[in-house]
Amino acid sequence: MKKRTALALACTLSASLALSACSVERVDGTSSPDANASSSAASDGQRVLNVCSWGEYIDETLIDEFEAQTGIQVNYQEAPSNEELYSRLQTGGANFDVVVPSDYMISQLIEEDMLQPLDYSKIPNFEKIADRFKNLPYDPENLYTVPYTWGTLGIIYNTTMVDEPITSWSALFDDTAAGNTLLIDNSRDAFGIALMYLGYSVNTTDEAQIREAYELLANAWDRGVYQGKVMDEIFQIMEGGNAAVATYYAGDYLSMLENNEDLAYVIPEEGSNWFVDAMCILKDAQNVDEAHEWINFMASTDANLRNMDFIWYASPNEEALEMYPEWYEETYGEPLDLELYEIMAAPQEVLDRCEAYLVLPQDIRTLYNDLWIQLGT
Amino acid sequence: MKKQRRVGSRLFMALVFLFLYAPILLMVVFSFNAGNSNAVWQGFSLRWYEALFQDRSIMGSVYTTLLVSLLATLVATVAGTFAAVGLYSMRRRRRNALLAVNNIPMTNADIVTGVSLCLLFVAVFGFWNQFAANYRFTLNLFGTVYRITFPQLSLGFGTMLIAHITFNIPYVILSVGPKLRQMDGNLVDAARDLGCTWMGAFFKVILPEIKPGIISGALIAFTMSVDDFVISYFTAGTSVSTLAMEIYGMARRRISPEINAISTLLFVVVLALLAFHNIRESRAQRAAARRTY
Amino acid sequence: MKHKRSLLALPYVGWMALFVVAPIVMVVVYAFTTAGFEPTASNFTGMGTYVSIFARSFQLALIATVICLLIGYPISYVMAKEGPGFQRVATVLIMLPMWVNFLLRTYSWMAILENNGLLNQLFDAIGLFDLINGLFGTDLTYFRMIRTQGAVVLGMVYNYLPFMILPIYSVILKLDRSLLEAAQDLGANSAYVFRRVIFPLSLPGVLSGVTMVFVPSVSTFAISRLLGGGTHMMLGDLIEQQFLGGAYNPHLGSAIALVMMLIVIVCMWVMNRFGQGEEQAVVL
């Protein structure tokens, strides 16, 4: 008998659990259904926000501060690369509200109708973004994005492990540091490097040029030039002096420099890539208001200063960018090494030598993917 | 000569255990490292243990891991026990066919299980979400009208739990099955003849007989859940992460020594539990031996 | 009445249909369709480029399995001959590492095998490099261990060795002592007894151990990712790439997973044939 009661109890419990997932509201005719729905969502309790960004890409005290200020609970996640972020969004497992992809990936997301236009009236701090970071080709009318950081791609090398300073992308393909070179583990950057070395545009859609770039990579691969394909593993490998040459982003170089003084950074003579990572809200985001609040918070001058100081990526916030050397001196009591500042926020003449990635057509993207996987075989 | 061989075999075992435990030892040692390196010793410190309890994402992932493992073990043990009793009272041929299906999640590669469940969930949720977005129904209850909206579903804790239950049940069935086979079938009939209800016979006769099988099945299920990474990785989506997923995310960058600290703590707890269990068991055995003589 | 009891299995049969059979049907559906769900076989015909990945995965997994067998069998055999107290401790010691997540243990290996890692530091400290450099006139300062295929095999052996030991051990333990004694009484020496009696009887354990090592080895992606540094792509990596990695194409991923599954099933079937259709040993 007792057991039967227990069974009945279990049944009702599970049934009520299943039902509680549905939202039930009373309809009393006075309030519009929309208002009703949103109020029920808010009264659900805790306001939450799901953010997805890259590894080591935020000063985490900013998250705490945002939570304290707004009472919104931030669920902060990281993705390893643009391509993997895209896969996660496609697979349907992701429930992010805000993502911070790079320029070319933003174009692709816009093209595939995966982002929603922002309500800039809720983002007053957007004004502070320097004009040169607005209306860029990836979002020509600036409807979807608020820039988060920008920077350059370059060669990071260990000065004690190579004979003379590196100035060309050739270092990644010849025997400068054969067996001690790290290849960047995303197809866009890896092919970009090969294309730049060959003197082609990083946005070429000429299949022959892309195949030539592949041959270059594959040839170096077969000769054993590369130790591995890595993304953020690079921090540990380069800091520990376990590889001599790698390609990565300027901001991350500065982070590594704090742990290993022998590292140097160079934008090769053939030029390089410069990028913007920007905050966007996904089309099926569940917490749109919270997402706007977050974007506005992260675009503020104070957040940009602190973030810049922590992650060493340049800020697109004009005020923050200009104030930073001064702010640094005030905070740390010593002047900022301007050489480092220029690596972080590359001056215009350097940017002029760099090319931004544009979104590639679908068939070229497929070619990139196929060739990239072949490289591992 | 025999003694020599014995020394040789002991030495061999010691080497294998060294191989098995060297990385764990390293992990324990470097959880007390003052620096954040995993290879360079910079002095003794407890800072990572202190930092650990402040770290929301790590503590959250430990909580998720334990919760999903415990719930999955619980459900899988109960469901698996009933299923095993059912299966072993079937005719042989039908039972073998079902057991073959039962073996699929165990023999299949984890990645195939994970990927296939992920595809299923995503497909079902795709249909459901479309349905939920377009349909809502109203209910008239004692004059008040309620509108019921269906929730949008996505991968998360629930799907991960389903996946864990799915790969745990076979282990329970596999360890309960042999006990059922050993059991004397007449026992149940006798109990029924003596007026026991059907349920009563199950709880009073069958359950005590197969208890050791259930316990070992539950233990295996729990171990598998805790150690799992691949299946969770594909079915948990992005809103929750287990300790393993957290470590995988970090390992591609640099693992915080806090992870060493939490793993050391978990390891010590398990070690203590096992030691306690073993001592008690061997004592019980000795006591039993004394009683018989 | 017995039939009434068999109804207890009904919920689980439903569960299996939903979460074991249906997902595999999904994989098959995905494998034979394009992104727009048009039927196609192109996912399979285009797989030629990945032959080398298949070959490498099966080769490395095979090597790992053989090494596990070579280490695991003697260990199980020795363990089974010891007293019960020793056996209890040894079994616990073999299972214990599984409670430390395998990723973390693998990560520990990274620190050991790194070019400036603990093992190379140790070699350096004992003067091994000086010795070699003196002998051969080289200028070695470290052995390259991490991010090689050897490291991947080591990771597999390390992670899956307990899965080889435990089934073999439990089978040997249950061997009928009287059979061995009978063989000895009939004048067989111990090598002969091992070859003609013990080994054949322990085959079911060996087979299930081989399965439990080979299948996860052939499909791993975490181990090859961490210890192989992404240079030696394996089947698991390839599949993961198509779902959550950098080359989104679940249809191709499903096709590869399906082919892998079929090859594994065929291998197991052939192997079980050799095992004269013995009933599979109970794992653990």
Describe the protein in words.
Chain A is α/β, with parallel strands linked by helices. Helices cover 44% and strands 18% of the residues of chain A. In chain A, helix 6 crosses helix 7, helix 7 packs parallel to helix 15 and helix 11 crosses helix 12. In chain A, 46% of the residues are buried. About 4% of the residues of chain A have low confidence. In chain B, strand 1 and strand 2 form a beta hairpin. The two termini of chain B are 36 Å apart. In chain C, helix 6 packs parallel to helix 12 and helix 10 packs antiparallel against helix 11.
Calculate the terminal CA-CA distance of chain B, rounded to whole Å: 36 Å
CATH superfamily of one domain in chain B, by name, is MetI-like
What about the largest sheet of chain A? 11 strands, mixed
Number of helices of chain B: 11
Helix tally of chain A equals 15
CATH architecture of one domain in chain B: Orthogonal Bundle
Uncertain regions spanning at least 5 consecutive residues of chain B: none
* Low-confidence region ranges of chain A: 29-43
Chain pair with largest interface: B-C, 82 and 87 residues
N-end to C-end Cα span of chain A? 65 Å
Number of strands of chain A: 12
CATH class of the largest domain in chain A: Alpha Beta
Fraction of residues in helix of chain A: 40-55%
Query: What quaternary form is this?
Result: heterotrimer
Query: What would you call the structural class of chain B?
Result: mainly alpha
Secondary-structure element sequence of chain A?
HEHEHEHEHEEEHHEHEHEEHHHHHEH
What is the average per-residue confidence, as pLDDT of chain B, rounded to a whole number? 87
Q: From the coordinates shown, what is the CATH architecture of the largest domain in chain A?
A: 3-Layer(aba) Sandwich
**What would you call the shape of chain A?**
globular
User: What's the domain count of chain A?
Assistant: 2
